[in-house]
């Protein structure tokens, strides 16, 4: 066995540093490539359930990406989807079967089923989303 | 061609107005008041619609002779007396067939409603000082309520009503308070309208009516407040409070919240030391215990909400993306509002159920923010480790290079 | 260890004649003088390009182009994906530092008169590389689809519409319609991840080949030189590591912000300005009056800027025809004058 020379030490030093550099670049990259548990927020389309889950004259609040939306099956059996955050002070709106409209319990704002603000304090309409019914499933799609 | 026609249509009433003999003489008059009338009428809605002096006052604007133009026998009515003003305006405004030519959606019941109002009743009884049409709408600068410069535009209404109702001298004979304007201005509604510019906030006429203005009765007030505060009114009606309230003829909402000085409600209203419950209940009573329970539940959701906001702001200041925590925080705020509304059931468990949801959301939001701050620190540590490795490698390379160069 | 290395080298040498390459690299000499430090600028640009390539490919794993998804996916990358914030910040910082280094490289080459025969084509490809880098920056800026990017792109592409005759057509071509929309985003994305990388790689290939064929400028006349391999190369690598570390520090301490999502109906944020490397042109165009005689000022400005760019591109050719005794003064005047004007306009644009 030969002596541990300065050159050997330097090579070891060099190798160690290089290994460290590789580790500190490869580790973040591998972690990055591993997809996160939570799938991407704000999808373009969201399946909100089966048609049979929605009785006529009922509604359901679901999260579409980070924002709540209200999916309504009106008294005639048609589907509607609107953003559920009231444009007045951000309360969550609800569907009223009796009046067949959307209203907000905080200050009594009312919207029709296309989202238009029709009475009370809301300054702007709710945003309408497309609802597609196919194969017994109800899917909400962002309006282009 | 179309544009020319439009221009003509707009210019025509102005031209007709300018050619009127009434305007020619009154504008040239030495009387400053007459001049001012002509000037202010230029922006009046009636002139915009093509009406002119004679449309209301009669007379013949084509005649240059004063006697002929203002001949009472030819229909000149001159200045109406204050007592006659409602009828004077009602000549047109109470006639559906006439009004429909100008604005089919404008109501025609103002004169009728006015006759039912306190103003109208007193005037009928011979009081000449009470408000008539022109006191609120002005005489010659009348603008529709939707016009921001109108005296009856939502934001200007408190001042318009206050012109008389805040004047102690004017109100003295009627023995009514004059602090409504001051109280309204500092109330939650006044602040929303005047400071935040929320034109949906209620003004005097939202609760009192306009042409048929009367103080809301005990039975009406829950209807009036309940127009906007729907759930609060509904909850209250089904609460154990509803019956004794009705029996004692309490003002449904105003008993606790006052009438004009309505403040943003805080948990102090439920305090066992100076809260509103003490108006009827003794401090050591069972009812006060319920109030204290509700109060502490509300305070917990409020403090969790505030705590979450502080944590989120701290994380955002460090440049972390807090969008998701913000959503949770928004959900907590929602529950907080709902819990406050649920107070009107006066059932502690109902309040607790909703408040607890808010507390849970707020805690999750705060946790997300704390995690982000931890992550922020970890980033720095990671960078430190990487920097160490890179520095070592650079140093090793430098030594290696020196070795090579000294050898060659 | 050493035996294994030699064996591998032998194996490669038998097939690819690799030792001759290394041999050649050791003979290539880098001159040593007081401006030698600028020889590293080009290498740093190359390294940063590779870093951009790597981080860009990583970003592509999660980025989804589209008016509905661009902003959301970038937000997802920087908040949900592990180390996504790092990759994105490195890509953004790397881009800016790279353009800065390209400027340093270009002006040092100009002032050292390294563009002269036989290096005319190297200079021209270098100028093309600068243009491609700026196109990279401009197209990449829009991809997060945030407010700033949206309005900057609106303003930036507006200028294209000023081109006489074909302006409107060009504007439509660039925007994929009359306005900046999701269609523009798709186009810029295609440009940024397919067309520009291909063009830049090819041009860099040519640029590097030219440098290898011609060797370093002034190597023949310099009294002192060092071998390119391993002496200069090791120094290069050391500098690259320092640059990598600097980018990482910037990415951690000043993570690139995402801002608000672009909205066509929102009003433009106050004080909106282009990226710093477009500031000088922006400021120049802003200074011009609305009309000069009867020609729109902006059009005149665009013509002037293009003429200046062409003049700069053709440096080796006009330099060749300038009389010998005036050559040095001419280069000095154009080089320092150009640099001063660029700096002054950029600073003015930044603070006005």
Notable characteristics:
heterotrimer, A: 144 residues, alpha+beta, four-stranded antiparallel beta sheet, 1 helix, 10 strands, elongated, B: 408 residues, mainly alpha, 62% helix, 0% strand, flat
Write the layout of secondary structure elements.
The complex is a heterotrimer of chains A (144), B (408) and C (352).
Chain A: H1 6-33, E1 45-50, E2 58-64, E3 67-73, E4 79-83, E5 94-96, E6 101-103, E7 110-111, E8 117-119, E9 128-134, E10 137-141
Antiparallel strand pairs in A: 1-10, 2-3, 3-4, 4-9, 5-6, 6-7, 7-8, 9-10
Chain B: H1 2-19, H2 21-28, H3 32-41, H4 45-48, H5 53-57, H6 66-69, H7 85-93, H8 96-99, H9 110-116, H10 118-124, H11 133-137, H12 157-165, H13 168-171, H14 180-186, H15 188-195, H16 204-208, H17 218-226, H18 230-237, H19 242-247, H20 254-257, H21 286-317, H22 323-342, H23 348-407
Chain C: H1 2-16, H2 18-27, E1 29-31, H3 39-60, H4 70-79, H5 84-111, H6 120-142, H7 147-160, H8 167-175, H9 182-214, E2 225-227, H10 228-253, H11 276-287, E3 291-292, E4 295-296, H12 297-313, H13 315-321, H14 324-351
Antiparallel strand pairs in C: 1-2, 3-4
């Amino acid at each position: 066995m030969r002596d541990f020379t300065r050159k050997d030490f330097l090579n070891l030093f060099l190798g160690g540093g290089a290994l460290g550099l590789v580790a500190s670049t490869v580790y973040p990259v591998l972690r990055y490539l591993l997809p996160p548990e939570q799938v991407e927020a704000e999808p373009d389309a969201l399946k909100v359930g089966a048609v049979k889950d929605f009785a006529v004259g009922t509604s359901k609040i679901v999260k579409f990406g980070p924002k709540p939306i209200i999916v309504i099956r009106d008294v005639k059996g048609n589907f509607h989807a609107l953003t559920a955050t009231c444009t007045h002070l951000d309360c969550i709106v609800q569907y009223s079967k009796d009046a067949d409209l959307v209203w907000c319990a905080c200050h009594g704002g009312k919207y029709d089923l296309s989202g238009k603000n029709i009475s009370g304090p809301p300054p702007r309409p709710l945003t309408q989303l497309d609802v597609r019914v196919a194969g017994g499933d109800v899917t909400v799609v962002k309006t282009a | 061609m179309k544009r020319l026609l439009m221009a003509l249509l707009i210019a025509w009433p102005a031209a007709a107005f300018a050619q009127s003999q009434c305007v020619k003489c009154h504008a040239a008059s030495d009387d400053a008041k007459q001049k001012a009338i002509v000037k202010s009428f230029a922006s009046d809605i009636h002139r915009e619609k093509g009406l002119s002096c004679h449309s209301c006052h009669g007379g013949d604007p084509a005649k240059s002779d004063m006697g002929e133009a203002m001949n009472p026998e030819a229909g000149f009515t001159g200045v109406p007396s204050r007592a006659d003003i409602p009828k004077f305006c009602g000549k047109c405004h109470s006639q559906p067939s006439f009004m429909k030519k100008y604005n089919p959606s404008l109501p025609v019941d103002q004169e009728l409603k006015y006759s039912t109002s306190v103003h109208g009743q007193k005037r009928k009884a011979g009081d000449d000082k009470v408000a008539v049409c022109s006191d609120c709408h002005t005489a010659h600068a009348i603008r529709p309520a939707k016009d921001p410069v109108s005296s009856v535009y939502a934001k200007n209404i408190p001042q318009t009503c206050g012109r008389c109702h805040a004047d102690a001298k004017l109100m003295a004979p009627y023995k009514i308070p004059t602090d409504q304007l001051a109280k309204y201005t500092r109330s939650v509604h006044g602040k929303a309208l005047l400071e935040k510019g929320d034109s949906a906030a209620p003004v005097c006429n939202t609760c009192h009516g306009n042409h048929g203005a009367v103080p809301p009765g005990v039975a009406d007030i829950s209807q009036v407040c309940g127009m906007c505060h729907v759930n609060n009114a509904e909850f209250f009606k089904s609460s154990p409070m509803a019956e004794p309230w009705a029996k004692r003829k309490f003002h449904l909402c105003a008993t606790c919240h006052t009438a004009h000085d309505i403040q943003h409600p805080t948990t102090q209203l439920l305090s066992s030391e100076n809260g509103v419950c003490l108006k009827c209940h003794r401090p050591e009573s069972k009812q006060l215990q319920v109030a204290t329970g509700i109060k502490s539940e509300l305070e917990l959701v409020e403090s969790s909400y505030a705590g979450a906001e502080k944590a989120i702001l701290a994380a955002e200041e460090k440049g972390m993306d807090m969008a998701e925590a913000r959503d949770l925080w928004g959900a907590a705020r929602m529950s907080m509002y709902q819990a406050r509304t649920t107070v009107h059931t006066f059932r502690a468990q109902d309040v607790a159920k909703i408040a607890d949801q808010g507390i849970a959301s707020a805690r999750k939001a705060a946790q997300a923010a704390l995690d982000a701050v931890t992550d922020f620190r970890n980033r720095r540590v990671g960078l430190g480790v990487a920097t160490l490795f890179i520095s070592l490698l650079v140093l090793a390379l430098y030594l290696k290079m020196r070795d090579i160069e000294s050898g060659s | 260890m050493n035996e294994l290395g030699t064996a591998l080298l032998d194996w490669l040498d038998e097939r690819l004649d690799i030792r001759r390459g290394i041999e050649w690299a050791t003979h290539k000499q880098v001159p040593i003088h007081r401006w030698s430090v600028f020889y590293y600028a080009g290498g740093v640009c190359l390294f940063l390009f590779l870093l951009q390539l790597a981080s860009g490919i990583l970003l592509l794993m999660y980025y989804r182009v589209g008016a509905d998804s661009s902003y959301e996916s970038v937000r997802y990358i920087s908040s949900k994906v592990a180390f996504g914030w790092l990759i994105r910040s490195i890509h953004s910082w790397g881009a800016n530092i790279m353009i800065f280094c390209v400027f340093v490289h270009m002006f040092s080459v100009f002032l050292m008169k390294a563009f002269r025969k036989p290096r005319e084509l190297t200079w021209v490809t270098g100028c093309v590389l600068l243009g491609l880098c700026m196109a990279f920056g401009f197209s990449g800026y829009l991809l997060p689809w945030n407010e700033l990017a949206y309005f900057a792109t609106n303003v930036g592409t507006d200028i294209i519409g000023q081109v006489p005759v074909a302006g409107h057509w060009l504007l439509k071509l660039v925007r994929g319609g009359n306005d900046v929309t999701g269609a523009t985003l798709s186009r810029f994305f295609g440009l940024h991840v397919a067309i520009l990388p291909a063009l830049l790689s090819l041009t860099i290939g040519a640029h590097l080949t030219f440098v290898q064929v011609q060797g370093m400028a002034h190597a023949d006349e310099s009294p002192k030189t060092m071998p390119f391999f391993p002496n200069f190369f090791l120094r290069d690598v050391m500098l690259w590591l320092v640059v990598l570390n600097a980018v990482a520090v910037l990415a951690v301490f000043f993570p690139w912000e995402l801002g608000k999502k672009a909205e066509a109906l929102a009003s433009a944020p106050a004080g909106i300005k282009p990226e710093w490397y477009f500031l000088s042109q922006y400021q120049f165009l802003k200074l011009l009056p609305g009309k000069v005689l009867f020609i729109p000022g902006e059009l005149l400005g665009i013509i002037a800027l293009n003429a200046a760019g062409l003049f700069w591109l053709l440096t080796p050719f006009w330099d060749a025809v300038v009389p010998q005794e005036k050559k040095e003064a001419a280069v000095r005047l154009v080089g320092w004058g150009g640099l001063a004007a660029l700096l002054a306009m950029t600073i003015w644009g930044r603070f006005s």
